[in-house]
Specification:
Helix content is 37%, strand content 11%. It is α/β, with parallel strands linked by helices. The chain has one domain: Rossmann fold. It has a six-stranded mixed sheet with strand order 3-2-1-4-6-5, with helices on both faces. Helix 3 links the parallel strand 1 and strand 2. Helix 2 packs across helix 3.
Length: 230
């Protein structure tokens, strides 16, 4: 079904499903929309959701943004996910290669203007993907960061003009990891080395004890989001 949800319907569904399980929220998403895909970055939340999606809706579309500067460990878990699960894993790349970006914007743009780098390597490809969809699914959780505290399980995404489902919005980090371990879900080994949030290799560092879970992203800059969920 290709659904068009009015604002009042989205608000009602968000309230109705706020205490639902992630699987029930996924079932709702696939019941309402045919033209829907899951945005996967292969973090802990995302690999847990791939496992759920493969069980709820085998063959579902799962896309990822290959910035060309992901960690080798991220590509490893991508390959493990592709081998294990019955999903359509689709790669999207930036319009500019790293060399073209360097020629146009200078070497190591991420070190001087990470916002522009994310715009080129993440936001533009995502905008391109989402422009062809009616809805998307993400792995964001409310307790990941203050910027995500208001996330609803179903919401209107004004930035990209479509419906957004956040099945894990109410889950804790412990619930995510309990699920991963209980279901033997492949995960990025960097999570075991002090990396709770993993992005591109140049803009991600390990997090020290007591630091915020996203402190390792864009360290030294005020930037806390790549622009995908703002």
């Amino acid at each position: 079904m290709n659904s068009v949800l009015e604002s009042v319907q989205v608000a009602q569904l968000a309230e109705q499903y706020d205490k639902a399980t992630p699987q029930e929220i996924l079932e709702l998403a696939y019941a309402k929309f045919d033209n829907i895909a899951f945005a996967c970055s292969f973090g802990a939340e995302d690999v847990a959701l791939v496992d759920m999606i493969a069980k709820v809706n085998p063959g579902a579309k799962v896309f990822y943004l290959d910035t060309d500067v992901l960690f080798p460990e991220t590509y490893e878990v991508r390959d493990q996910i592709a081998a294990k699960y019955n999903v359509q894993l689709i790669k999207y790349s930036p319009l500019l290669t790293l060399n073209e970006q360097a020629n146009q914007h200078g070497e190591a743009l991420w070190s001087v203007d990470p916002g522009s780098c994310c715009g080129i390597r993440k936001v533009e490809p995502l905008t391109r993907v989402l422009s062809s969809l009616d809805a998307w699914i993400t792995g964001i959780r409310r307790d990941q960061a203050p910027t995500r505290a208001g996330a609803k399980v179903v919401e209107e995404d004004a930035k990209f003009n479509l419906i957004k489902f956040n099945p894990l919005a109410a889950w804790t980090n412990k619930q995510v990891w309990d699920y991963i371990l209980a279901n033997q879900v492949p995960y990025n080994v960097l999570h075991d080395q002090g990396y709770p949030s993993i992005g591109c290799i140049h803009c991600t560092r390990a997090v020290a004890a007591g630091e915020d879970a996203r402190a390792g992203r864009w360290a030294g800059f005020e930037k806390t989001e790549c622009g995908l969920h703002q």
